Amino acid sequence: MQKPAPSYDEEKRLVALRQLGLLDTPPEERFERIINLAVLIFKVPISYISLVEADRQWFKAARGLDFRETARDISFCQYPILTLQPLVVPDALLDERFKSNPLVLNPPKVRFYAGMPIILKEGLPVATLCLMDVEPRTLSHEEMEILRELSHIVRREFELGEALTRLR
User: Residue 42 contacts by C-beta under 8 Å, 6 or more apart in sequence?
Assistant: First the structure.
């Protein structure tokens, strides 16, 4: 299955991502708290905030993963970034895009994925707020709204951090 074409300028997106000043930085309590809330609310073993670069995704905050980044080409998160839409994969083994993905076939053996794009006010998607489970599942309409609200909190934290950086 082919990936959709981005509906934005990828170079502008990457510049905006780098201007946030978050890549390859230490963990921050403000993002860790959001991830912890997601784990508690959705009762999933894995949640993370993924900053999606040209060739990799790097996790600003993560719970339930033993690694801090993956190649973009195996990333579930590239799809919400490309489409500017949330992505829910109820069972990755039944999805043509992911059934042979190393994250599905090997640990953490992902079956369920939900990712909400984090889109800056300029309309540029820079990250995703994600949930993963080792069991197939779905999200209700209410749960999707909660995930959307949490993603808005992440976006606001990105913007506040960027504003503070400019003031310095």
Answer: 114, 131, 139, 143, 146, 147
